[in-house]
Backbone:
């Protein structure tokens, strides 16, 4: 069942075209990895899906509803889509528990006790149960990013977007975060990841998409993209990674 449809999406900043007619479908429980050089449009595409950027042409449909229609309620859309950035974006003045429970309580109307119980279950699930009362600056980078992912899934989103979530981490901490994402895949979470971790993309993705200069040049199974890429620019990119 198709969950997300990206139909001919264009995004411009002045005269600069960042996305040029991107088409992509994502099925329920599918994991899609976006690969490509910096500036290829991966992050902008994720921001358009979460309505953090407006599209200049084309449409994005979530559950067959056009969320880019001017009449769409952006806040209602974002209730159903979680997003995690490379810079964590945790609220520094709030504890881990309060960071995680903020959206369930304030946006979804979940009671404090229920929200905290659910948050503690998620923290335990990902090995952070002892960090509930800590503040972000008391955590390692890997722990902060794991908390950011937990915060994003605490609202039980239909779709999770992950934007280069390991790029700001020390290499020794990367596996902490990749382990969380791998567990989410096993649980059936639908995800779109922009990543520079080619080995991880090959391991976790159901579909890999190569973007270059705002164009989705190639899409396929990881074995095909990494083992026998068809487009010369895909081959060139992978030869340099």
Residues:
């Amino acid at each position: 069942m198709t969950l997300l449809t990206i139909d001919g999406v264009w995004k411009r900043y002045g005269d600069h075209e960042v996305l040029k007619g991107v088409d992509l479908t994502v099925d329920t429980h599918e994991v899609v990895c976006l690969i490509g050089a910096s500036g290829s449009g991966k992050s902008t595409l994720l921001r358009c899906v979460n309505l953090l950027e407006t599209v200049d042409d084309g449409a994005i449909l979530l559950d067959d509803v056009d969320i880019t229609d001017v009449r769409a309620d952006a806040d209602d859309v974002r209730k159903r889509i979680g997003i995690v950035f490379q810079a964590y974006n945790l609220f520094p003045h709030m504890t881990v528990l309060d960071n995680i429970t903020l959206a369930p309580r304030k946006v979804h109307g979940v009671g404090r006790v229920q929200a905290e119980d659910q948050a503690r279950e998620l923290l335990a699930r990902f090995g952070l149960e002892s960090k509930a009362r800590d503040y972000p600056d008391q955590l390692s980078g890997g722990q902060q990013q794991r908390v950011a992912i937990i915060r994003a899934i605490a609202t039980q989103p239909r779709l999770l977007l992950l934007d280069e979530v390991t790029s700001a981490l020390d290499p020794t901490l990367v596996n902490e975060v990749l382990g969380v994402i791998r567990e989410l895949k096993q649980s059936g979470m639908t995800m779109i990841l922009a990543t520079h971790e080619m080995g991880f993309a090959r391991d976790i993705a159901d579909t890999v998409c190569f973007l270059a200069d705002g164009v989705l040049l190639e899409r396929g199974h990881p074995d095909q993209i990494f083992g026998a890429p068809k487009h010369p620019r895909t081959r060139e990119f992978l030869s340099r990674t």
Observations:
- Residues 97 and 103 are 11 Å apart (CA to CA).
- The chain has nine helices and ten strands.
